[in-house]
Amino acid sequence: MLKSVHLFGCSSGFVSNLLKPNSIVGFGLTFVSSKRLSASSSLSCSSSRLSCSSTASLFLAPRTGSFKAFCGSTCSEANQEGSSSSPLSMSESPPPASSTVTHSSEKIRNIRFCQWCGGQTKHGIPEGEEKLRAICTVCGKITYQNPKMVVGCLIHHDNKVLLCRRKIEPSYGLWTLPAGYLEIGESAADGAIRETLEEANAEVEVTSPFAQLDIPLIGQTYIIFMGKLKKPYFSPGPESLECRLFPLDDIPFDSLAFSSMLVTLRLYVEDVKAGRATFHYGTINKRPGTGASDIHAYTLDYHLRL
After folding, report:
1. pTM for the complete prediction?
2. Coil, strand, or helix at residue 191?
3. Does domain 107-145 have CATH number 3.40.50.720?
4. What's the order of all strands across the beta sheet hosting 68-76?
5. Domain coordinates of the chain in residue numbers?
6. Helix (H, G, I), strand (E, B) or coil at 208
7. Mean pLDDT, the chain, as a whole number?
8. Which helix (H) or strand (E) holds 105?
9. If DSSP states are collapsed to H, E and C, what string results for 221-282?
10. pLDDT tens for each residue of 231-289
11. Which architecture characterizes domain 148-305 according to CATH?
């Protein structure tokens, strides 16, 4: 008996910076041409490289070591919720609760080509695993997709906070802390310092960690550091329209770019008014179906103050 399962994803081609190398030996693929049990879903996302919508159906045979799958999707190039220095945004509908293979929180991109040999991939569940993977039909290697880390600085100077107004889409013209993706070979603190220099031409010194905020829906973790200016100088970088120091009472909470920035700055203001320095950990759960512009559509869960 075949089981029909919803598969969420989008075609990304080679997305090597999201993937974890691994391989599989002796895995058999069996692709279905019989009647499909219809299971369709849609996903839209904006990322530094792509935006797409896709429909897919997956059929599992009870036979060990094999799977049957059908995947169809379309993809087009687009900007991301932040280019190299800002976060990814997704809006999607969760899979049905009756799914026997994927949990409702599981997300997968339909990677069409192998990052090692360029061969075409198909999605299935390898033997001994429980999650959908992209498996190369040529070399047999599995593409693993892992969360990304975003790092940034919360610069306090003269009782003010340094913000940058975005010069790129999405969220063009809205305000954000200087932040972006961590690069290979960098520590989190080094990445935060680099991003601040790139976006605000500001040389800073990291003084302490401030917050770790996980956003499972888009596969990201934010690490925000407290920092101070080495020199009282800053100016807009290539991705910023302007940079400005805001008194706490004047922070433009209604004109911030992302929920992560809203949460970070609210927590900072609370700490300052309470007269305490606190490290925060929390999970930002975005409301399904909302996009990057819906910065208030979230709950902050598992919030810990240390």
Report:
1. 0.65
2. helix
3. no
4. 3-6, 51-60, 68-76
5. 107-145, 148-305
6. strand
7. 74
8. none
9. EEEEEEEEECCCCCCCCCCEEEEEEEEHHHCCHHHECCHHHHHHHHHHHHHHHHCCCCCEEE
10. 999 999 999 999 999 999 999 999 999 999 999 999 999 999 999 989 999 999 998 88
11. Alpha-Beta Complex (3.90)
